[in-house]
Amino acid sequence: MRPTVVYRTVGLAAALIVVALVAQELMTVLLAVIVTIILSLPLSAAASIAERRGAPRSLGALAALVTALGVLTGLAFAVIPSFVSQAKQFANRLPAIVADADRYVHGFAGGSAHRISAQLGSFAQSYSDHPLRLVGPLEQIGLTAIGMLLSLILILVAAFLIAVNPTALVNGFLRLFPEARRGQVRDVLSRVRTAWLGWMIATGIDMVVLGGLLFLGMELIGLNFAIGFAVFSALMTVIPNYGSVISAIPPILDGLAQSPTKAALVLIVYLIVNQIEGNLILPLIMARTVDMHPALVTMGLLVMGSLFGLIGVLIAIPLLSLAIILVQALWIEPQETRAAAARPERTT
C-alpha cells in the first residue's frame, strides 16, 4: 500500500474522530439550550403578566423564580427526610424482603430468590465491613453533584435573562430567515412555546396528583415505605409509558414479602391511579402538546436516550413535540395547502 494512501486513511480516521467528538459536545450544548428555553417559558409567562399590570418584566420573572424555588425547597424539606429514611430502611430490608417473597414465588423461581437474597446480603455486608470502599464512589458522586449544581445555576440565570427580554432573542432568530418566511417561523415558535409550557404545567400537576393518590392508597392498605414509593413514582412520571411500570416494581415486591394479597392490593392501587392518570391527567398534557402514538413515544425515548442519556429521556416529549410541529409546519401543511389550491382547477 502506498504511503500516501496510508496517510490519507489515518487522516480520514482522525477527522472522523474529531467530528464525532465535536458532534457529541454540540449535542450537549444543544441539550442545555433546550432545557434553558423550557425553564424560561414559565418565567416569561409570569413576566408578561407583570408587564400587563404595569410592573417591570424582571420583577415578574424574579417573583416566579423565587416562588418556584421556595415551593420546591418546602416540598424538599417536607418530603426528602422521610423519603431518605424510608429508602435506607427499604435498602436494609431488601435481602429479607426477597427472602420473604421467595416463599410465594419459590414454585416459579426455584432457589433463585435465595441466591439473590444471599448476594444482596453479601454485597451490603462487604461495604459495611469495609466502609472505605465507599469513599471513591461517594467522592465521584459528590463531584458530579457539584458540577450538576453549577450547571443548573447557570441554566437558571440564563433562563431568567431570556424571560426578562425574549423579544431581542426572538427577533435575532427571525433575522436568520428570509423575510417572506418570518411569519411562518414566528407561528412555529408560538406553537412550540404553547406545547412546551403546557407540558411543564401538566407534568407538575401529574406528579403532585399521582404521588398524592399513590400515597393515600398505600397508606390505606398499610404498605411499608408509602411516602418513599409515592415520591419515587411521582418522579418517574417524567418517563413516558414506562415510568409507571418501573415505579410499581419495588412496592409490589415489598407487598409480596408480606403476603400475595398485599401485593395484589398494591397492584390494584397502581392500576386505579394510573387509570386516573391516563383518563384525566394525560389528556391535559396531550391537549396542550401534540397527540403522539405510543409507538412513536417509545422510539423517541430510545433515540433521545441514545443521543442525550437520561436527560434526553426526561425531556423526550418536548423534543418529540418539536419534531412533530416542524414536520407539520414545513412538510404536511404546505402539501395540504397546495392540494387544496389545486382542487378547484381540476373541477373547472
Approximate shape: globular
How many beta-strand elements?
Answer: 0
How helix-rich are the residues, as a percent range? over 70%
Work out the oligomeric state of the chains in this entry.
single chain
How many separate helices?
Answer: 12
Query: What is the succession of H and E elements?
Result: HHHHHHHHHHHH
Rg over CA atoms: 26 Å
Major beta-sheet overview:
none
Distance between the termini: 69 Å
Q: Give the helix/strand class.
A: mainly alpha
Question: Brief description of this entry?
Answer:
The chain is an all-alpha fold and 348 residues long. The chain has helices at 3-52, 57-109, 112-129, 135-164, 166-174, 182-220, 226-236, 243-258, 260-288, 294-308, 310-314, 316-347.
Please describe what this structure looks like:
- This protein has 348 residues and is mainly α.
- The protein contains twelve helices and no strands.
- The longest helix has 53 residues, at 57-109.
- The radius of gyration is 26 Å and the shape is globular.
- The relative contact order is 0.08.
